[in-house]
Structure formats: structure tokens, C-alpha cells
Amino acid sequence: MFRYRRYRVFVAFAFIAVFALYKFSNSGPSWREAASNAAAGFKSGAENAPQVDTKPRPVVAHETKSPKLDIAAAYSQQPLQTPPPLKTPPPRSSARPVVTEKQQKPTIPTPIWPQPPVNPNPLDHSLTVSTSIEAIHWTKLPEHFPVPSKSLIKLPSGKPKPMPKIQFKFKPEDAATKADRLSKLDSIRGVFKKSWSGYRKHAWLHDELRPVSGNYRDPFANWGATLVDALDTLWIMGLKDEFEEAAKAVDSIDFSTTASRADIPLFETTIRYLGGLVAAYDLSGKKYKNLLDKAVELAEILISAFDTPNRMPETYYYWRPQFASQRHRASPRVVLAEIGSLSMEFTRLAQLTGEHKYYDAIARITDHLEEFQNNTRLPGMWPTYLDASGCGKVYVDLPPQEPLRAPEGLLEDDFDDTALPIPTEVLSLEGKKHVPLNLPDPIVLSPNGSPPKPKGSIVPGRTEKDMIRDWNGDPLEKRQLDVDLTEPLKLAQDADKTSSAKATMPTPPECVPQGFVSSSDYGREEFTLGGMSDSTYEYLPKEYLLLGGQVEKYRTMYEQSMDVVKEHLIFRPMLPNEDDILFCGKLNVPSNTDDTKVGDLDAENAHLTCFAGGMFGMGAKLFDRPEDLEIAKKLTEGCVWSYSMTPSGIMPESFEAAPCENTKECTWNETAYWEILDPRSEYRLKNYRDQLKVYNEQLASASSWYDAQLATMTAHPSADVVFKAQATQTSIYADTLDKRQLADQEGDLDIAVRPSPSIANSQNRESVMGGEPEEGEGPPTKVQPLLNIEEVAPQPSLTLPAFPMLYSPHPPLNHKHYVQNRIQEERLPKGVTRIGARNYILRPEAIESVWYMYRITGDSHWREAGWRMFLAINEHTSTLYGNSAIDDVTKTSPQLNDEMESFWLAETLKYFYLLFEEENVLSLDDWVLNTEAHPFKRPT
């Protein structure tokens, strides 16, 4: 049977659809007319602009006719006209205006634009990138604190002193040794050429190459740091064509501006750029004058950072004119290496140009270091941070405070204090006057022991009216803070004198001039040869060499500092094979553990500290300190061992070891080593026992409470109640047979409350047995139990109480398992107690000392060690475009970090190459290398 109600919606929809088809099928002429009008308007072109109809168009129904429309323009051969160009809208008032040089705020650094995520196309350097913002350029400004020409510290011009030979006198090599050496030399040169080619192709004139992605980054002002830094390496390796190209490209570097940062890091710029340009000019026989010109151009910018009251430089120079034109001071907290490692580059530039101002700038720093050296917390060494501002604290005595004046009219003679109510004469709550009690007269003791004055006596110099009385109306004795009314003019005169003295007091000075001082007056200070200090000590013997021994203070400062280093910082690590090597740690002063010690030693060996072996070796030969040569060998051996201890064969940035009691004897003690790895084993076990004791107490308390809660709960109903069923005759019907079969599954409660047969028989059987049920009719309602019957009443809930939540302490690992787990999880080589930094960023300091040791001792052992280091580094850092820093040297397959700092080409590969180059190339008796391995010619 068709049910209309279910399909009435579909019927309505079908009716609307049929009506729509009929309606729109008769609208053809109207559509044709509209199309013709549209075509006519389109033909008019420029005469009549097309009008846009904003009315909604009707829905187009399907037609059975041809879709060809009667539109003349649709079949015309006339070409379509190009619409007129859109006019550029005027700029909105909220648009950012063009910033000129005068409008540029010096305190807001130029944002560093994000680098493209993909490999950029090679740039056409003949084209300049246009920008709407004009670049800001540094300009030479008048100095605020110029040094008179008569006060300049002149560059020593005397004849250099005779110097001891530093380099070993090598003998000629045999053919087999030469062939092996040349083969290794070619391998090192090949690695350099790959890195240089990657830089040339993907990062030319930028600071650094990203060797994994083939991209670049510019941490050093985007002045081509790798290009300038690697100039002398190109020359040393005989890559003269590449050197020519790079030397010409230096001319395109504009040191007067940069878009990558608002400041110039003085230290990094000096050692990489200035040192690289001067060394390349020196090394190439002074043939490329443009290199020296660019060095002078850069030096003029850097020397402006010294324009401070005490001529100490701003280590981060903000170069923009509006900021640079202001008066500035050096920072009260500068890094030692950043201010103490500028001497070699400026000295060599002064020697090449004859400009004394370059030497004057760094000589003043040396004078301050010399003065401060024996006034530190560890005399002989300098802390990693110091105050170079030259401005001491000013303590000014405050003028005497003016005397207090009484308010005007308060103490005049016509003031009648009798009008004031006595404090005790106040109104009570009922509005009546409160009458005070008669109290005895107070006992007054005079200072000299004389009897008290009688009542009513008047103090001399005061009238009856202006007396200050006590609560009984008696005049009080004159006290210290009472105002003497007999001398009003004297008080006014004193106040006038005080005001006059205050007005004539001279203005305190802005600061007290001082030299270098500590940046931390109360906290601990760090003394180290490692990071933030290293090159300051390194430059002392090298500057002595560069000046031809004519400034003796450099030797004195070096020897004093090295004596302290040997006493407090150098230690022998406890190792399983009892290797006789040395590490140079750092000392924190004052000591927090023992008042009898100067400081606490951090038994650390850092990659940056590995330069110390070469420095000790050079100082030993230069200043005739033979005991230092043995220290130099053992320090260098310590860094070689640090390379061999890891699975990758590369030394981590820093790690710690167990120091021995002395450097002479050091027996391996595994028990002591384990104690260092797990110094809290006893405390951990004791803490567990204490926690377990507390837990047991809590458990006993919770159990007692739980038992009490169970006891207070209502018990189950007793089983004594028996329901007696009486047998009654039951009528059997055909439709109740199944229900009887299910009777066994009913509960006792349902049986107890089942209605009697008489009640059931009284129901209408016709309504429950036959016929179709009526709408809304259902099964009979279940009879509820009688709640007033005790036996059948619902029982209380038998849910158990929640047991309190307790946390049992976790049993700790015993001492043995803890140590073994830590060694395994941290991948600690035996003897190493902690690895502070696991990465390697292609650092050169270890191979630097290996090269110095080979040139000083002539022992081929150092070449063998250096070759193992080279193979390990190249294996784990090699990429498609160069070599990359890695994340963790304790892994067998470290992850590449996609960074290749400029010192990879300037230092690391240069030292590897020089290790296998002929010994007369860059002889230590003719050249001296700065901290970036840039060689400067020693004066003769």
C-alpha cells in the first residue's frame, strides 16, 4: 500500500522542478536579447565602458537545442582589445616611509633577513641589487678623546735582538719518506680544494658555506670571511690561480656597511679579516697592494672603537654614524681574550704602514694588563671577565641635613594652649564628660640628682604661656629634641649657612679613573687557558717575537702567568693505562670547599685549551725554559689521547677526568674512579631507607583506618529469615507455559512480591492473551516490594571503602649498577668522568700543537699522530660540498650540523698541510702565526 505521508516531500520537490523547467523553457528570447545587448556594449570598446550587471543571474536550465548563441561578437574576426593598464594607487598614509641616513635610528639593528630554504642560483656580481632603502655607510668622525701626537706610544724602531732558534734543524729525508709525505700532502690538498670549490660555487663573497645543503650564512657582517681567511692557505698550497681570483674579489668587499648586523665584533674581525689581509700581503711578497689597502680601510673603522676616555676599545662596535658619533665607554664586563688578543694584527699593520696610532692602541691595553696582573685574585693570571671602562665607583658624603622648622604660627606668643581641652576630658558614650581619676604625682629625677623642682616653677628663658606641660599641667624639663625658642635667629642663620654650603658644594666627578679591575667583587672568578682567555696568553710570546724582543714586558708577563698555570691549573689525569699525559683545567677562585686552597680545580680538558702545548713549546725555546718543553709534549699528548679515546677518533669540545694527586705518580684506582662517577651512593641508599620507613608507617596507619571503616559498616542480613511458601492451586494456560519454565531464573525477591493467584485471575485474560495490542499498551507494571517489611526492605550498599593511595619508594640502583649504567648511557671512555660538550666544529687547536711539536722537536711521532687525526676528521665530517661540524663524537656515525666555519680552511687544513710540507715553509725562525694561523713576517 502506498503511504503518502512518507513521500510527500518528494512529491513537492518534483512539482517545483517541473514548474521551473516549464518557466525557464519559455525565456529563450529574453536571454538572446540580453546577449545581444552585451555584445553591442562590448563592440563599443573605448567609447562606452562595459557596465557590470550586479543583479544575480537566474539558474540556467538544460536545453535540448544547439548551444550556439546568437551573439555577433562571439563570431567576429575583430581582435579583442587590451584593457587599459590599471593606475597605481597612491600610497596609503600608514605606509612605511623611506628611511634615509639621517632618519635612521642607531639603536635599532638592521634585521637579519632569512636565508632562502633552497640552493640559490649563482649570483651575477656585476649586477647590484636595487632597494628602496638607501644603505647606511660608516664615515670617519672627529674623535671625542683624541690622543695628542706627542703622547702616542711609538712603535719600537730599533734593531731586533738576537733570538734563540725555535725550529728543529731537520736532516734531508729519504725517497720513501718523501713519497709517503707527498701522497699525504695531496690528500690534504684535495680535501681543501673540495671545500674551496663548494664555497666558490655556493657561498662566494659570503662568510661561510653550509656544506650539506649548499647554502651559506653570514655571521661576520657578510664580508666574505672564508674568502679572506683562506687567502694565505691558497698561497701556501700552491693554488695561485685561486689566490689571484680571491685577491681581486677582495676589492668588492665594502667594509663601510653591512646589512647583516648592527655591530662589529672587534676580536673576530681583527683576527680573521685584518689578520688574513695582512698575512696574505706579507706571504705573497707584498705584490698585491690592494690587500694592504683593504687592511688599512678596515683598520680605520676598527680603530674608531678605541675612541673612549681611557682609550680602551668597545669590543662590539656599533658603527652607524648616529650612534658612533656619541660618546662611549668600554664595557665594565669584557671578555679577556676579546680585549687582549688584538696586539699582533695592529702591530704588524703599524710596521707595514708606519702608522704609530695602530701600535699605540694595543700598547695601552698591554699596560693595563701588566698593571692588573698581580692585583687579581690569582696573581699572575687574569680572570675571564674584567672591567675595562676605566670608571671607578664614586662615594660622595651627603651634606648635613637642614634643621626642622616649626610650622608658621605654631609657636607664636598669642597662641593660647589653655583653650585646648585636656586630653582626658573627653565625652563618654552617653555624651557626658569623663572625669579622670586622681593619680599620684609622678616622680621626676633630674640628671644631676638634685631634688625635683616644685610645681609651678618656670624654666628660665620661657614665659608662662609658652611652657610645655605634662598631663598634670606641670612644665616639663628641657629635653634634647625640644626647640629652644629663645634663639630663633640663630636657627635661621644656621639654616642659611647650610643651604649656602650645599649650594657651593662642588659637583662630584663622573667617575674615578682606574685601570683594569675585576668585574666580580663578591662572586667567584674563573682562571683558565681555555675559552675566553686563550689567545691573550698566546700573544705574549708571539708579540715579543714580532717586536724583535725590544719590549721586555711581554716576556715578563708570560713567565709570571705560566708559573701560576703550572702550579694551579695543569694536572695529570688518572687513566687505566697510566698514560703520562697532562691536561690544563680551570680554577674557580675563591674555593668553596676548602679555605686553605686558593680555588677549586675543574679537571677539564677542552679543545680550545689544546693550543697550550704549542705555546709552552715555543716559550720553552724562546725564553730558555727547558722544563716547559716537557710540559708542552705531555699537554700535546693529552690532546692526541683525547682524539683516540672516542669511537669516532675525534676529541669532543670538552670533557672532565679524574685528577691525580701529583704529576709524577698516578696509579689507576677503579674504586676512586667509581666514587667520582657516583659520589652520592651512600646518600642515595640512606634516602631510600628513610623513605621506606615513612612508607611503612603510612601503610600501617592506612591499614588501621581501613579496618576501622570495615568494622563500622552495616553487616549483611542474617540468613535466619526463612520464607515459607504455601502450596496453592494454579491454573495452567497455554500462553503461560514458557513463563513457568523461566520461573527458576527469577530471584527470591520477585517470588516474594508476586501478586496472589486471585489477583492475577481477576485480570482480563482477553487483553493479555488474544488480539493485537492497542496503541500505547505494554506489559503489566511490576509490583514494587513493600518497604515496611524488614525482611524485604533494600539493604545498605556493601561498597568497600577506598584504601588510601600510597607511593612506595623505588629501590635505587646499587653502586656498581649505577656506575655501569652511567658509563653505558653516556658512552664514557674509561677514565673520563663527564663529557660537557660532545660536538666538534672542525677546530684546529689540537693539530696546531702537534705541528708545533713536530717543528720544535723533529720527532716523526707527531706526523703519525696528526695523520690519524686527519683521517678520522675527514671520514666523519666529509660532505658533498666540503666538511661539516658534527653533533656527537661519541657516536660511531655522528650527525652533520651543516656548518663549516672559516677556520676550517684558514687553520685546521693549513696545520695539517704544514705538518707534511717541507720544514722551510713558514719556518718558526722566520714567521710568527697569529691565533687564526695567519703568518706575519718577523723583523730582521
Automatic annotation (TrEMBL):
Binding-site list for Ca(2+): 931
Biased composition (Pro residues): 81-92, 108-118
Keywords assigned: Calcium, Disulfide bond, Glycosidase, Hydrolase, Metal-binding
GO biological process: carbohydrate metabolic process; ERAD pathway
One matching Pfam family: Glyco_hydro_47
GO CC annotation, single: endoplasmic reticulum
Residue span of region Disordered: 76-118, 443-475, 754-780
Active-site residues, record numbering mapped to chain: 268 (proton donor), 534, 653 (proton donor), 845
E.C. number: 3.2.1.-
Cofactor: Ca(2+)
Gene Ontology MF term list: calcium ion binding; mannosyl-oligosaccharide 1,2-alpha-mannosidase activity
Pathway: Protein modification; protein glycosylation
EC top class, as a word: hydrolase
Biased composition (Basic and acidic residues): 462-475
Disulfide bonds: 610-639
Similarity annotation: Belongs to the glycosyl hydrolase 47 family.
Protein name per UniProt: alpha-1,2-Mannosidase
Organism encoding this protein: Cucurbitaria berberidis CBS 394.84
